[in-house]
Amino acid sequence: MAVVGFQDTAEGGQQRIVVRDVVGGLALKEDEASAQASRQLPPDGGVGKRCLAGWNRFVPEEDELDFPKNAEIKEAERVNEDWFWGVYAGQKGVFPANHVREL
After folding, report:
1. Residue 54: which CATH number?
2. What is the pTM of this model?
3. Please, are residues 74 and 61 in contact by the beta-carbon 8 Å criterion?
4. Which of 1, 64, 86, 98 is the most buried (most CB within 10 A)?
């Protein structure tokens, strides 16, 4: 579940914002969900690291993650020295470590 709210803009209108992200995270697997039933789930955006994108990344590969500059990639896990795995805008995939900064 994601909680969406509204925020006033400088132009006098409103824009949608995500107040609370997906509880438990998108990387949470079904078998882990039953194991975590006795534990409290994280309140916002799942588990793992967060990364901030320093550059745009749009690639045609299916298993690689696309994101714009300044995107916050959640549930990030380091695959190796050069690559991370993470979730952005409901999509999962790998992305190069040199495109992001860990938060």
Report:
1. 2.30.30.40
2. 0.57
3. no
4. 86
